[in-house]
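Sample entry (320 residues):
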Amino acid sequence: MNLKTLLFLFFFNCLYAQPTEKQDKILFTVPRGKTIDYVSKKLKEKDLITSELFFKIVAKLWFSDKKIKAGVYELEKKMSTYEILEYLTSGKVKMVQFTIIEGWSNYQIGEYFTELGYVKNSEEFIQITKDKEVLQKYKIQGLTSEGFLFPETYTIDPQLSIRQIHEIMIKMFYTKLSTFLDPKTIPSKELYEKVIIASIIEREAIHKEELPIMASVYYNRIKKKFKLQADPTIQYILKNPKKKLTLKDLEIDSPYNTYKYKGLPPTPISNPGLEALKASFFPETTEYLYFVLMPDGKHYFSKTYQEHLRAKKLYWDTVK
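Predicted structure, serialized as tokens:
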């Protein structure tokens, strides 16, 4: 038997062999955007393949015109490398996964779901978030579910409709809220206002430990009837956030412009995560009324306007 024949038999055996001693079924997740290197490594870790290199060779030779599709697959250890690749490129997922990022607005979520193919465009999703029956069911005071779509990685049945997914995210919001308080004890109006504050600080803070302090600043400003002057509320008007707002941006006539109008914006401006929600319900007790972003990404908090101006000057002198 020559070398070519031996190599062919080895290759054929590795490709199609189905060891009878391994019958276990395993849920295998392919996250969105992951490479063949990631997939082969994870398959090897779960003992679903014997060689990462061989897996990539088979993928190159037989599946170069196909893509491994994201989702959760039910694989069996008896499967050959070829069968696994056939399954992963077929899209026959048992479950699918998607991730909502903390601080995304409903519009951004709509854009994401457009990419995933759940809706034709972001506006279609926005219309779903306006479902009055759903809003009444979950006692959401706004005209949309903005603020109540909890940021999380979801693993769901691929057969679910976008309306069902929308409601699942609202349910997750209340599930997470229940980890630190009983939502039933909070009046709807108060809850909505807390979510608005949480949605602002979620977009404002970079370091999570600052969230309770930042929440205190906004509550202090509200008590003193100061304008909130929150940059994220302007970014919400613009839809496409800017790195730096201009003076012209601050002049936009909108109820969301907290530089122009006192009090809270009409609705949440993003969908806050758990830490921002906690901070909104349980802010630090401070006398701070101002804060400015510093070069390290943290904020300098001030009690007086004079101190705030000194901090701003220090910042600008540092970055020049």
